[in-house]
Design goal:
- By secondary structure, this protein is mainly β.
- Among the domains are: 120 residues, Immunoglobulin-like (Sandwich), CATH 2.60.40.10; 125 residues, no CATH class.
- Helix content is 6%, strand content 24%.
- It contains 3 helices and 25 strands.
- The protein has a 4-stranded antiparallel β-sheet, with no helix packed on it. A 3-stranded antiparallel β-sheet has the order 1-2-5, with no helix packed on it. Strands 8-9-10 form a 3-stranded antiparallel β-sheet, with no helix packed on it.
- 32% of the residues are buried.
């Protein structure tokens, strides 16, 4: 078999082994001049050729490489070996040196005849500007001037101290200068500022006087400062940037108290006193006012000032005008009549103002009166609606409390900052309205309101359970004192003699108030005058009264209404 046939077989086998879609892709990736600052007429041009394709070039394909100087062909190189995929080769020539110094363009073209079938035929050439130096300029000694005087590709290479630290002849001890070129370029000199450097707080001798941070006295010493509301105990340290010192330490936290300050240094103020800003009330009777819970003297208090009491008590308006916890005391009355007094808030119990010598007594019989608050007993001793207010207690503890009746409800108080806060109820005492509700939560309904003549209501406190007690609104729109309803007395109730004017009832504790007994409309011409006729006789036991035939008609009608209310309260219907 001839060599030609053998070559054909080899080509056939190579063609079968290579993938049909695999092709070479030749490109010129870099053109360089050696040396970099070559003189005119000197230097070698190198071209780096890379096969970026997925297949190598054929071993039997002759590829040419053309070099052009400023567009003119200056050299042709021939390569017979196949270039594998991803492989590189270098073509060089010294035939392309220009005759004049300066910048010239070298262009390299690979496979200009397109003899190899490539994946991309448009990337086979590259142009690169190169610089050739003038021999008359470059054939000199190197100077310190930032130039490549000897055209060796380096600048000031013989001046090895250039840019290093130095110390001039100034009086300080610091090497704060740098070596730079001398004015004539023959060497280097130390360039250092003679201006003094300011001393900074940075543990460095900035002003080069042999001392460190000497302008910051006290540095490293203990310190104590107030930052916001917190005390910081630490040591004087340098600030960032070194311009000053500060007290570096941890804030000393204390227990949070009600004072508008961040005592525990957590970034918030009075956060343990959750009742702050909530509504509260001060004073009793006509003196009661409302406000909000605030801080004072490191504890919470109700920021409200009671109104001044009236100069005297007005009779018949069911209002505590002089704010002493009683109403209508000293007003005229008939034997057997009475009024409730005192309060049922906290440890206190209501009592009765009895009719003594024709006048409602100022002594609240049978009542438990307010005492000084006792810490730790869980009782509202001073009957202000709060338990142990101002006393030490575990923070966060909840305790039940009450703050009146009517429109107010029982609530809770919280121990904050080691002291009980005020009683916070769901309902807030408000000014009394004439709406049949105890709006100001003092135990009386519509006190101070004019009543409609003939209206009858049950009394909220009673001296005993031997009769039913009620009040009647007279023709002058004021209330009569409480009196037993004629005909409701129980003859076998109690023992002993006397009446309400001489024998105070035994204190039996708080009594659930009966419901309203309704309204009475006086007959024409026979209404109440505000001064009822002589009272019915009182028995020796429970004030059981018989109804005389001469009793006024309003008394009989009141008795009928009270009987209906009493039976309704006890679960009966008339």
């Amino acid at each position: 078999m001839s060599a030609r046939h053998i070559g054909g077989v080899i080509l056939l086998l190579l063609g079968l082994a290579a993938p049909v879609s695999a092709k070479p892709d030749l490109t010129v990736t870099k053109i360089t001049l050696e040396p970099a600052n070559a003189l005119v007429g000197e230097g070698n041009v190198h071209a780096l050729i890379t096969n970026q394709g997925s297949s190598g070039t054929s071993w039997f394909t002759v590829l040419d490489t053309h070099f052009l100087l400023d567009g003119e062909l200056c050299h042709t190189a021939t390569d017979y070996a196949g270039l594998g995929a991803g492989k590189t080769t270098t073509q060089s020539t010294d035939d392309c040196n220009p005759s004049t110094p300066g910048t010239h363009v070298i262009t390299v073209i690979i496979d200009p005849e397109n003899e190899a079938e490539e994946a991309n035929e448009d990337n086979n050439s590259k142009a690169q500007p190169l610089i050739w130096m003038d021999p008359e300029i470059c054939n000199v000694a190197e100077k310190c001037n930032g130039l490549d005087d000897n055209c060796n590709g380096e600048t000031d290479e013989i001046f090895t101290l250039m840019g290093t630290v130095c110390d001039s002849s100034d009086p300080d001890d610091c090497a704060l200068g740098l070596y730079v070129c001398s004015p004539d370029g023959s060497g280097v000199v130390c360039a250092e500022s003679t201006a003094p450097m300011p001393e900074l707080c940075n543990n460095v001798d900035d002003d080069c006087d042999g001392q460190i941070d000497e302008d910051f006295p006290g540095l490293g010493q203990p310190c104590s400062v107030m930052e916001d509301d917190c005390t910081i105990n630490g040591t004087l340290s340098c600030t960032d940037g070194g311009g000053a010192v500060y007290c570096a330490g941890t804030p000393t936290a204390s227990a949070e108290i009600c004072n508008g300050l961040d005592d525990d240094c957590d970034g918030t103020t009075d956060e343990d006193f959750t009742q702050l800003g909530q509504p509260c009330a001060k004073g009793i009777g006509a003196c009661r006012t409302t406000g909000t819970i605030s801080c004072f003297g490191d504890v919470m208090f109700c920021a409200s000032a009671p109104e001044p009491p009236g100069p005297f008590e007005l009779c018949g308006n069911r209002e505590d005008d002089n704010c002493n916890g009683l109403y209508d005391e000293g007003c005229p009355c008939e034997p057997g009549q009475y009024l409730p007094c005192g309060t049922g808030v906290g440890a206190c119990h209501e009592g009765l103002l009895l009719c003594i010598d024709g006048e409602l007594s100022g002594n609240c019989q049978g009542a438990t009166l307010p005492l000084e608050e006792v810490c730790g007993d869980g009782e509202d001793n001073n009957c202000d609606g709060s338990i142990d207010e101002g006393c030490s207690c575990p923070s966060g503890t909840l305790a039940p409390c009450s703050i009146g009746a009517g429109g107010c409800t029982a609530g809770k108080q919280t121990c904050s900052g080691g002291a009980w806060g005020p009683c916070i109820a769901e309902g807030l005492p408000t000014q009394e309205k004439c709406d049949g509700i105890d709006n100001d939560c003092d135990g009386s309904i519509d006190e101070g309101c004019p009543c409609e003549p003939g209206t009858a209501v049950a009394c909220t406190a009673v001296p005993d359970d031997c009769a039913f007690y009620g009040q009647l609104c007279g023709e002058d729109s004021t209330w009569f004192p409480c009196m037993p309803k004629p005909g409701t007395e129980e003859s076998d109730c109690g023992e002993g003699g006397g009446d309400a004017s001489s024998a105070p009832p035994e204190d039996t504790g708080p009594i659930d108030p009966p419901s309203n007994v309704g309204k009475y409309t006086p007959p024409p011409g026979g209404g109440s005058t505000g001064e009822p006729s002589s009272p019915p006789p009182v028995d020796a036991g429970c004030r059981s009264q018989s109804v005389p035939t001469s009793a006024p008609r309003w008394t009989l009608l009141l008795g009928l209404l009270l009987v209906v209310a009493r039976r309704t309260q006890r679960g009966f219907t008339p």
